[in-house]
Amino acid sequence: MSTQPPQTTPITVSELAKYNGSDPSLPIYVAIKGDVFDVSKNTSSYGPGSGYSVFTGKDSSKALGKSSLKPEDCIADYSDLTEKELETLEQWHAFFSKRYNIVGKVVPDN
Question: Which residue range or ranges hold the Cytochrome b5 heme-binding domain (predicted)?
Answer without folding.
Answer: 11-107
